[in-house]
Amino acid sequence: MRRLADVVMQLLVSIDQLAQVAIVGAAYLLRLTDTCPSADETISSYIGRGQLRGARWAAIVAPTIDGLFVLLGEAPGHCLRNVETAFLGLPPKP
After folding, report:
1. With the C-alpha atoms ordered 78, 22, 41, 30, is the resulting torsion angle positive or negative?
2. Which residues are CB-contacts of 70 (< 8 A; sequence separation ≥ 6)?
């Protein structure tokens, strides 16, 4: 059962990454952002990076995403905690 849960979690992450590429890709094509999307980044990571840059849109969107994860049992601050380390120039998380 644990293996099934692991695979399902990876599928959910891949769907999240695909959605991020679609959303940010559309914004990039429309010249609403200068950031080209990366298939290695989740929506939460992208929003967390926006928060770190002080982007107003990220400050507006992050509480909604964070609130959803609080309902799922996580601590507040999901987006900032899930910024992909590669995008910060840091080594990968263990």
Report:
1. negative
2. 76, 78
pLDDT in tens, the chain (94 residues): 999 999 999 999 999 999 999 999 999 999 999 989 999 999 999 999 999 999 999 999 999 999 999 999 999 999 999 997 767 776 656 5
Biggest CA-to-CA distance, the chain: 45
Say how far apart CA 69 and CA 88 lie, in whole Å. 23
Helix pair angle (2-29, 43-53), 10° resolution: 50
Tokens of 91: 């080594």
Please name the residues in contact with 41: beta carbons below 8 A apart, sequence gap of 6 or more.
17, 20, 84, 87
Q: pTM of the predicted model, to two decimals?
A: 0.86
Q: Which of 79, 38, 33 is nearest to 60 (CA)?
A: 79
